[in-house]
Amino acid sequence: MSRPAVPGFFRHLWLLWGLRFDIGLNQGPGRSRLLAVAAFLASSAPGVFLGLTFFALMRVRTIADSEVWPFFILNLLCFVTFSVWVTWPLLSAGVDDHSELSRYAAFPISPFRLLIASTVASLFEPRALVFYAPLTGAALGFASRYVLYMPWMAVVLYVLFALLCAAWSRVALYAVINVLREKHSAEIMGGGLALFLLAASFIPPIDTSWLTAVGEAGVGALDMSIIVNATLALSRVPPGLFGDGLANLAWHRPRVAMVEAAALLFFTGVGMAVAYALLMRFHRQAGRAGGQRKDAKDSNPFATTRTRYTTLVTREALDLWRNPRARLLASVPFILAILLKLLSGRDLFVFVLGGSADAWLMGGLCIYGAVVIASTFSQNTFAYDGQGFAAFLAAPLDLADVLRAKNQVQGAAALGMAVLVALFYRVYFGFGTVVDVLCAIAAVLSVVPVLLAAGNFLSLYFPVKFHASLKRRDKIPLTASMLGIVAASVGCMPFGWALKLAGKEGPTWATAGMLVLAAGLNVALYRAVLPLAQRLLERRREVVLRAVTRE
Fold first, then answer.
1. The overall pTM is greater than 0.90
2. Which of 102, 162, 442, 519 is least surrounded by Cβ atoms within 10 Å, i.e. has the fewest?
3. Is the distance from CB of 232 to CB of 248 less than 8 angstroms?
4. Where would you find the membrane-spanning parts of this chain (predicted)?
5. Separation of alpha carbons 511 and 531, rounded Å
């Protein structure tokens, strides 16, 4: 009997992309595919608005008739799009894709083909459609105002730019997971953060004095040489090759555009080679690390716990502390703050928001840190610690206490994160009043109860599977992700409303009191719905157990 033929390259891609689509939608028995596809489209919907907005911006007469602004906007969007793509694994701690080779280990396909499939498939995820929507709209608006020589070359440049972003996003992702795999990942990330802070202190801040001139005399007072130099600088980095290529097509210089297309292809190839090397290094380490990993310490942390509930809280705190993803998430707000100061971003916020700028910035960073910590673990509260839920079922424990302990630790971690970020902002920037700090902490106290309440129900109705043999977790269903975003938005509304009422004069004690009142109401709401979640946990315990432990 002859062996069946191995699928060809394009057949492999078709099968893998279809499987990734099903995994992304988290299809399973009883799940509505129509609802999952609707959630996919809904999560991509903001991209349509962004694309149309920048398409209209490029057709505004003042910009379209300028010899500088269209090219500056294009090159700036190229740089911003690339930067967001590359830093997204860090900003979102999206480190679950390391299982790509493990997931398809039994498939008759080479690891390099798997890398290509996952890289190209990442271009069609909802977040990707949102990321490159502004640049897409701006490029179409540019093309509608200029006659492009060889329009097909513009399409080639666009595809190569998208592949460049995807390739270097893989590099960032696999670099992060290699760090997280290391035994001393916390020390490595802490040292890296310290070095980043030290290096940033030697870089002179960007001159923002032009903001004052623009504010007093309008855009006409702006020295256009600044915009021209920025445009040229942005066109000389790899992401800017797309915008510069479109400009050369508009100027009927196709040979230069072809050279830039070749350069985009070269840098994409370099990114893919680096990503492949990092990914294979990770899996070689994972294969060697088999049973040698030790989590036990010489001292027993449970020796001093006096009650069963304090033991549960201690266990949850230790699990969260030792979770590499939690360490990665904890570093993000500090990195964002350093970048904000390095780019003189606070000056821009002061120009736009006046006396409320520090409250907005401090509160935004605190809320971001709290949201990523609370939502990441509360929406997967029964599986982020592996198969710990099975141990809880086998132990003489009340599951209501388990859920309450998890919520307490997750809420305390989010609040502690917010306090550290607020103190760091006050010391690092040297701005921010007591009222600003109080508003930021009260905003976090308002959003965390909403996230915990939503996370409890999402964990019960959308339990995420943990595969012990492959050491990976499936992705959170798109519907659950959308509901989690809605919950975070609802929790953040009091902060936005309070600072909007404060205006440019800045928040007052009344603003802080309003946020404290909102936090009290949300805490009361959380306590009111917690008994319902605990009762549902008792009813759905077997369903949750099968979902989070099945192979």
1. no
2. 102
3. no
4. 34-57, 69-91, 103-124, 129-149, 155-176, 188-206, 256-279, 328-353, 359-377, 409-428, 440-464, 476-497, 509-530
5. 32
How many angstroms separate the CA atoms of 13 and 77, rounded?
A: 30
Long-range contacts of 230-235, Cβ-Cβ distance < 8 Å, separation of 24 or more? 230/72, 230/76, 231/68, 231/71, 231/72, 231/75, 234/72, 234/75, 234/76, 234/78, 234/79, 235/71, 235/75
Residue 306 class from Cβ within 10 Å (0-12 exposed, 13-18 middle, 19+ buried)?
Answer: exposed
For 464-515, write each residue's pLDDT tens digit: 765 444 345 556 666 777 788 888 889 999 999 999 998 888 899 999 999 9
Beta bridge mates, 467: 472
Write out the two tokens for 292: 């040698």
- Residue 30, CB half-sphere, CA atoms under 13 Å: how many? 2
Q: Is residue 67 packed enough to be buried (19+ CB in 10 Å), middle (13-18) or exposed (0-12)?
A: exposed
Closest of 14, 26, 27 to residue 121, by C-alpha:
14
Neighbours of 307 (CB within 10 A): 9
What is the band of 170 on the pLDDT scale with cuts at 50, 70, 90?
confident
State whether residue 472 is helix, strand or coil: strand
Whether 66 has a pLDDT exceeding 60, the answer reads yes
Q: Tell me, rounded to whole angstroms, the distance of Cα 384 from its chain centroid.
A: 18
Structure token digits, residue 476: 């959170």
User: So what's the pLDDT on residue 178?
Assistant: 78
Helix (H) or strand (E) holding 7: none
Domain boundaries, the chain: 44-182+201-286, 323-550
Distance of CA 86 to the CA centre of its chain: 11
List the beta bridge partners of residue 472.
467
Count of CB atoms situated within 10 Å of the CB of 180: 20
